[in-house]
User: Fold this.
Amino acid sequence: LYIADGHHRTAAAALVGNEKAKQNPAHTGNEEYNYFLAVAFPASHLNIIDYNRVVRDLNGLSEEEFLNALNKDFVVEDKGVDEYRPGRLHEFSMYLGGHWYSLVPRDGRYDDSDPIGQLDVTISSDLILRDILGIHDLRSDKRIDFVGGIRGLGELKRRVDSGEMKVALALYPVSMDQLMRIADTGNIMPPKTTWFEPKLRSGLVIHKLDD
Assistant:
């Protein structure tokens, strides 16, 4: 089951329902405000695409200092100027200074038994974005932006080469098994983790909650 725009939309609907329930002394649970619009796809019809990151600066570091900092937690390999896409889970592709790099976490840098901790988005958020670049809140920090994998690695390169961004990070797509495991354990995916296809057509739906 894929619900509209993930847990944010679901949480917003729940909040509205809770507020309406408080205002209704005759609340039964069957009122219109207890429901929200959703769409369901069979898992076999969904395609999960990578959701990538671009960052405006290196938090005061030079490119050399940044690469040295990455070496603490990752095996860093320069892949040259041709586009390089991560080929497996727990491998990252980085574009910096006109070159593509492969980043592979060193042993013991994440907990593979933790359904959230072993996600590539968590590994990169903790070890790169937070610990090196000083980005702690992916939702509010203006130094970071997100690029759906549907736009390709060329969009990452373009935004860095233009000078708008300093570094780009491409992630391997979350697997369906990882997604199901998180759902089955009652966890919530971190922000900007998955890009689903097919996408629903955009539109506006209005439904009255009161007569």
Remarks:
- The helical segments are 7-23, 63-70, 120-130, 153-161, 176-184.
- The CA atoms of residues 60 and 133 lie 9 Å apart.
- The longest strand covers residues 74-80.
- The two ends are 31 Å apart (CA to CA).
